[in-house]
Amino acid sequence: MNPTDTGPIRLAILDCDSGFVQVLVNRVEGLGWPYRRLEAAPRVEEFVAMRVNALVVDLALLGPAAWDFLDRLSGEIPGLGVVVCTGRSTVAQRVRGLRMGADDWVSKPCHPEEVLARVQAVVRRRKQASGRNDEGPMVAAELEIRSDQFQAFAAGRSVDLTRREFEVLLLLAHAKGKVIQREEIYQSVWGYAMAHGDRSVDVFIRKVRQKLEAASPSWKYLHTHFGVGYRFDPEPLEPSGPPESSGSLEPSGSLEPGRLGDVQGGAREPARQEPARTAAGEPLADGGGDTAFNQLRASFT
After folding, report:
1. 193 assigned to some structural domain
2. Which domain holds residue 223?
3. Mean pLDDT of the chain
4. Which of 107, 125, 143 is the last residue of a domain?
5. Which of 24, 134, 178, 246 is most buried by its number of CB atoms within 10 A?
6. pLDDT single digits (tens) 124-148
7. DSSP output for the chain
8. What is the CATH number of the domain that holds 138?
């Protein structure tokens, strides 16, 4: 393996399996990577001070606190590549770990070379994602997307995106209105092929959309293309106020004066009634109109 492919890798190994760790350390030293070997989880603040950019961790070492540690670590160090290397696990555990910030998951027993290759792949993706930092913030409608902070802002306030949520948003924003397929989003953000039936992309899109709507309610940023994928394209939302009045009704000039009644003192006079006529146009006798109406009504009973 060539360590220059990804630039300098500063690795932390959090595992108490002495045999596995020793073999891994031997390979790391051969590559010339700076590393820290840990057998107990430090506080997140102490981990930040180590200035590592990759972590190999056995979550079984942390017990019930593993999920909270992983979540806080991903939030505090957005650029950290995390490879979980642990024993037997369930699908639910692996999915939970990947959704909470892990970039990859390897099950023991495994070969150290494979673990380090996965570390390199994770760091390479992180480097590619952060390569846009020099471009400055991206502004779209009320939204400011800052790659250097792994965060988006609306009206100067943080949208409070997680690292993974930010990566999904950034990928779509850089596509500039192009529809990105779910599989492509997963491959770019998670780093490997999406399994059949996996709804992770949909879950993260929903979370990002909810946060953007709360932070910038006058705009719609994410659009769904059912059966295909998603698109980032800011569009202003129409105000939801009461309908505008069409104004007062004015009599038409084609009507005879008084047909709509004259307004006097705020009351409208009733319109004059024309006498009922026969089919030949002759006026009916008194009560004829009622008789014709009663006959017509009887025909529908």
Report:
1. yes
2. 133-236
3. 79
4. 125
5. 24
6. 877 766 655 556 788 999 999 988 7
7. --GGGS----EEEE---HHHHHHHHHHHHHHT--EEEESSPPPHHHHHHHT-SEEEE-GGGTGGGHHHHHHHHHHH-TT-EEEEEESS--HHHHHHHHHTT-SEEEESS--HHHHHHHHHHHHHHHHHHHTTGGG--EEETTEEEETTTTEEEETTEE----HHHHHHHHHHHHTTT--EEHHHHHHHHHSSPPPTT--HHHHHHHHHHHHHHHH-TTEEEEEEETTTEEEEEEEEPPP--PPPP-------TTSPTTTT--EETTEEPPPPPPPPB-TTSPBPPTTHHHHHHHHHHHTT-
8. 1.10.10.10
